[in-house]
Write a structure and sequence with these properties.
The protein is an alpha+beta fold. The chain has 23 helices and 30 strands.
């Protein structure tokens, strides 16, 4: 690393591992495949004429009928034709004129790419056109190996010409590995290709529809060098495994090995499949060696972050800096790098993230620290330039400083026996990611790791996202003891609506004895604080396939009803947007208002209607009506405009069916609340007197009280010190006096100016108009015509006028 006293220490004891990998001169694989942009060849077939691109279906059929024959296959020294083994049409090169200046100009570039991907020197690789193959519907070729068809032949290149078809994938196998190549393409500006060594087994799966049209070439080695073989990485893998086995078996330090790769990769595009050149060979060998030595292998990005003090070039002050430490140009957080040089590294942090597992899938291990003596190969970061460097100029007593970051891709190896402990030591995110891997594959190991989770939880934010992941993994593990030991203690203090489905599933999986106590504690704890979330839980429990007993549901409902009667708001949160995924924030429910159009209440009417319907269906309509009456007694949370009226409208339009008696009771409660508040229009005050009853034990409070009760006085001015003014401010606010109270900051002491307003009357008028609109909506409902509501309906019409 350039210009630093880097904190990285190398795994010197594992230099033999680096030596085993140093001999990987051949970097290619057993196959090469991809897409290649090129002009199409000028292809002319005897008897059929020139071929168009993409190849039209009619022309493909014409080629078959006029120029093609069934392709044979080799069996020992025999050449046979058997459509149960190979069903494909071929056209001999003697019947094909292959030309086109653009095609012949581009083909050497394609051949160079193929040779490089196969680990060969392109200067010594040539391609000889062999034949044209056409697979029509049902065409296939069973697994086989190619025979040598020309001197120096070592492989085959297949170039799929643009032609619409489905199916026909090419499977290539070698040394226990298999890859599937899809050669479908219909773009006249590109071809799909695949190449492989002759000793690779391969087969063509049946074409489902259309025509698969291919140019087939023999790959040959130029000169008397002998045909090359598939790059054999097994000796290197076995040598690497020989180094790894003692370390993995004896629990020796370091706990992991981090082998840095040569090329730089972006964090977004990192994957085993995207590794370049020698990196790809290194990764394959380390994956194979890990398998032989009982080690897990992952891909990740190493972050090395350093900070410290910097020096100005050319003297203390540097360019543009005055003797007083000021600058003539604008201040910037990041200074011009050319003005500085690194002084000393004072602090640093190293970790690995952006994980990919051996199947090239993302693994959410989070940031795992990079410890001492874990990095290979020795000296890999010598003279390495940082990916990012930021200098900050001197400010105040602080000198100039710098921050810089190195980013390198690496293959990371852990002994499988220590893998779970390493993940747990890296934190809750790594532990949860590993638990997710083990849950479906290694139940005993998953049980052990799960029991470590509570000890990790206290050091991290108890987010809904993390707990949701944990619950899902514990369901997959399916152990009742572990669920009770791990999940239950975390669910009560951190319960959220998104966990309701997990609780219901757990009840069905683990039974009442394990889950019912946790559910009961959640109802007792949250019924008043988050009533909508708890009504959602009760409803899902009541409707579940493995529903609790009626006695349990009744007990939980009684606890819930007590909380609902004291709740300050009832706001349902849609499950799709119920929680954030960032680690440091939890969601606060939206605050309910008395405006039925408030978008925060959009889900609430349907949620409440569904809950009442579930109560009626499970415990009977009488129980649902009794519950509703308790809710009606709490208009703060279950008000007419913000909830009861929308519930009636929801039920009447498309909501759940509710018994007529329950609907009538709800409509009556709604009407009584609206009439009690707005049956008569608010009377405009005749004077400016206000009711003011509060202790008046100071001259200023007595003066304020006298002013408030005075029918004529509009403005009061009181000169008072800060403490007295604060007391007067609090008194006006606490007693709801209809006046403004502002401090006039002139003279000493300042003056408090109180000015009477008509704000309360304006608010009453606004509420009155909103209530009249709600009365009209209520009368428009079918339930308003019920015989039990005749008198109330008459009063509503009279109030509307």
């Amino acid at each position: 690393m350039a210009k630093s006293s880097a904190p990285i220490t190398y795994a010197a004891a594992f230099a033999p591992l680096a030596d085993a990998l140093a001999g990987l001169e051949r970097t290619g694989d057993y196959y090469a495949a991809g897409t290649f942009e090129t002009p199409m060849p000028a292809l002319n077939v005897t008897g059929a004429g020139p071929v168009s691109f993409p190849v039209p279906p009619d022309q493909a059929r014409h080629l078959i009928t006029t120029a093609a024959e069934r392709a044979p296959y080799g069996k020992g020294d025999q050449t046979l034709t058997d459509e149960s083994v190979r069903k494909v049409w071929q056209i001999s090169p003697t019947d094909i004129e292959l030309g086109g200046r653009g095609w012949f100009g581009a083909f050497p570039r394609l051949l160079t790419r193929v040779a490089t991907d196969l680990g060969l020197d392109p200067a010594h690789v040539d391609a000889e056109f062999y034949k044209l193959l056409i697979y029509d519907e049902g065409g296939f070729f069973l697994a086989h190996r190619d025979s040598e068809k020309a001197g120096g032949m070592f492989g085959t290149l297949v170039v799929a010409l643009p032609s619409a078809h489905d199916g026909g994938r090419l499977l290539i196998r070698h040394a226990g590995r298999e890859t599937a190549v899809d050669l479908r393409g219909n773009d006249p500006g590109e071809v799909r290709y695949a190449a492989f060594y002759a000793d690779c087994e391969h087969e063509v799966l049946p074409v489902i529809s259309g025509h698969r049209v291919c140019l087939v070439y023999n790959l040959v080695q130029r000169g008397a060098r002998g045909a090359p073989a598939v790059p054999d990485e097994r000796p290197a893998a076995e040598a690497a495994a020989h180094v790894l086995r003692p370390w993995a078996a004896n629990k020796e330090r370091p706990v992991k090995l981090v082998y840095l790769l040569d090329h730089h990769y972006t964090q977004a595009s990192l994957s085993f499949a995207a590794l370049k050149g020698r990196d790809a060979a290194l990764a394959r060998v380390l994956l194979a060696a890990g398998g032989l030595a009982d080690c897990a292998a992952h891909l990740g990005i190493v972050h090395i972050e350093e900070s410290g003090w910097a020096e100005y070039k050319g003297g203390y002050y540097g360019r543009g800096r005055s003797r007083y430490g000021r600058y003539s140009d604008d201040d910037n957080d990041d200074a011009d790098e050319s003005d500085f040089e690194i002084g000393e590294v004072c602090d640093g942090r190293q970790y690995i993230d952006q994980w990919r597992d051996a199947n090239d899938q993302p693994a959410a291990f989070g940031e795992i620290p990079l410890d001492d003596h874990e990095v290979l190969p020795p000296g890999a970061l010598e003279n390495e330039e940082p990916d990012e460097t930021h200098f900050s100029e001197a400010t105040g007593n602080a000198g100039a400083s710098f921050e810089r970051t190195y980013l390198r891709a690496a293959v990371v190896l852990w002994p499988i026996s220590r893998f779970d402990a390493v993940c747990a030591s890296a934190g809750i995110d790594a532990a949860l990611a590993r638990l997710g891997q083990l849950a479906a594959t290694d139940r005993p190991a998953a049980l052990c790791l799960a029991r470590l989770v509570p000890g990790l939880w206290q050091d991290y934010g108890p987010t809904e996202c993390r707990l949701d992941l944990l619950l899902g993994h514990l369901e997959t593990v399916g152990d009742a003891d572990v669920w009770s030991e791990v999940a239950a203690p975390l669910l009560v203090p951190t319960h959220h609506v998104v966990h309701n489905h997990a609780l219901v599933r757990a009840f069905g999986l683990f039974g009442p004895a394990r889950v019912a106590p946790t559910i009961a504690e959640i109802f007792a704890t949250y019924s008043e604080a988050t009533p909508a979330a708890l009504t959602d839980l009760w409803r899902h429990l009541a409707l579940a396939t493995s529903a609790p007993s009626d006695a349990a549901l009744s007990d939980w409902l009684e606890t819930l009803a007590t909380g609902l009667a004291r709740a300050k708001a009832f706001v349902a949160i849609p499950a799709a947007t119920a929680f954030r995924t960032d680690n440091d924030e939890s969601v606060q429910p939206a605050v309910a208002t008395d405006d039925a159009t408030d978008p925060g209440n959009a889900e609430s009417p349907a949620a409440l209607a569904g809950f009442l319907a579930a109560v009626a269906a499970t415990l009977g309509e009488a129980r649902a009506e009794a519950l509703a009456q308790r809710l009606f007694a709490n208009p703060a949370a279950f008000g007419a405009r913000n909830l009861l009226l929308p519930v009636l409208e929801t039920v009447e339009s498309s909501g759940p069916a509710l018994a007529p008696e329950l609907l009538t009771a709800t409509a009556a409660a709604c009407a009584h609340e609206l009439l009690g508040r707005s049956e008569v229009r608010p009377v405009e005050p005749k004077d400016w007197a206000q009711n003011a009853s509060f202790p008046s034990n100071t001259p200023e409070l007595r003066e304020l009280q006298s002013f408030a009760r005075d029918p004529e006085a509009r403005v009061l001015r009181i000169r008072a010190n800060e403490g007295t003014r604060a007391l007067l401010h609090r008194t006006v606010a606490a007693n709801g006096l209809d006046m403004t109270h502002e401090t006039e900051r002139r003279g000493r002491p300042y003056t408090l100016v109180c000015t009477k307003t008509r704000t309360a009357h304006a608010r009453a008028l606004r509420q009155y108009e909103q209530d009249l609109a709600a009365m009209r909506r209520l009368l428009a409902l079918r339930i308003a015509a019920a015989s039990e509501l005749v008198a109330l309906a008459g009063r509503l019409r009279a109030a509307i006028g």
